[in-house]
Design brief:
By secondary structure, this protein is of the alpha/beta class. The chain has seven helices and nine strands.
Length: about 300
């Protein structure tokens, strides 16, 4: 262009100015449209390897304390100790989570993931209740571990934003908790139905502390999936076995039932309801519950995340 117009030609300057102007305008418009539409994507971390259970390994260590050997025929009388005083020490070694994967090769992650993907924990915002319960005490981020690339911030999200995700780049799971009322509009009900069925996703509901919230959650699911009846999710279900086999359902505080509920479509759990407020166990300080309860609560959370991403 310079050789055609000449370096000092006004037409050259006008062409360059016009090109830069259109480039800036195009970039600005693209940014505005993206923000207005709320368009975004979710990508899981890439990985490989075989799916397997993680278990607690108990090793027994034999410790021998050396003793003097006493001549039993000695004329000196006293009570001789055993030659070998054997003490058994039990060492519990727990394998860390997220050593599982999908696809070819080694490493934690998922076969449909990408190198820039991260495991994210998305919490739904809804009208009528305390949807933010325990989030200010770190419950969401505490559940995310360092085995995978993970998000470094909590992600509260309006239900309406779920429709902006493309089907193959949609969050595999969203979380809902509270202890008051759940109020969804007709539009939000349709968005949730499309998200669960068309985007092949999953809803994880956790009763945050009232006997009434279970009825609220079930009533909401009747509107979202009117033809699907909830069933009990027993301990032999995959979601309770991989990667962590759970000996019992961890419950921080009972709020009615003692078993989990599930909504199944085409053999897949599209919604999972937990009755016992495990969000409290994820929070800083674990709300004072025993160690075995909050550890099992973390393990259940990991199982659910893995099931949804798989």
């Amino acid at each position: 262009m310079a050789w055609y117009f000449g370096r000092k030609n006004n037409k050259l300057h006008q062409s360059i100015f016009t090109l830069l102007t259109y480039t800036c305008l195009f970039g600005t418009m693209a940014l505005i449209l993206t923000r207005l539409s709320g368009c975004s994507i979710y990508e899981s971390p890439i990985g490989g390897g075989e799916e397997k259970q993680l278990r607690q390994i108990v090793k027994i260590q034999k410790v021998i304390n050396k003793k003097y050997v006493i001549n039993p025929y000695s004329s000196i009388l006293f009570n001789p100790p055993p030659i070998d005083d054997i003490e058994l020490q039990v060492l519990e070694v727990t394998e860390h989570l997220y050593k599982i994967g999908q696809g070819k090769g080694d490493g934690a992650g998922f076969s449909a993931g990408t190198t820039r993907g991260k495991v994210r924990f998305i919490r739904l915002k809804y009208n009528g209740g305390d949807w933010q319960q325990d989030m200010d005490r770190g419950s969401d981020l505490n559940l995310l571990t360092d085995g995978h690339p993970v998000s470094d911030r909590p992600e509260p999200m309006e239900i309406g934003r779920l429709k902006s995700f493309p089907a193959r780049k949609s969050p595999p799971m969203v979380y809902m908790t509270g202890q008051q009322k759940i109020s969804l509009s007709g539009k939000e009900i349709k968005i949730m139905r499309s998200y669960l069925l068309e985007n092949h996703a999953m809803l994880f509901g956790d009763n945050g502390g009232s006997s009434g919230w279970e009825g609220q959650f079930i009533s909401m699911m009747q509107k979202i999936l009117p033809k699907v009846e909830p069933i009990s999710v027993y301990l032999d279900h995959t979601i309770h076995r991989i990667p962590y086999p759970l000996p019992r359902l961890p419950i921080v505080a009972p709020h009615g039932r003692s078993d989990a509920l599930g909504w199944v479509v085409d053999g897949r759990l599209v919604a999972y309801y937990h009755p016992g407020d495990i969000g409290d166990a994820w929070a800083d300080g674990h709300s004072g519950v025993p160690r075995e309860v909050w550890e099992s609560s973390y393990q259940l959370g990991v199982n659910i995340i893995y099931y949804a991403h798989s």
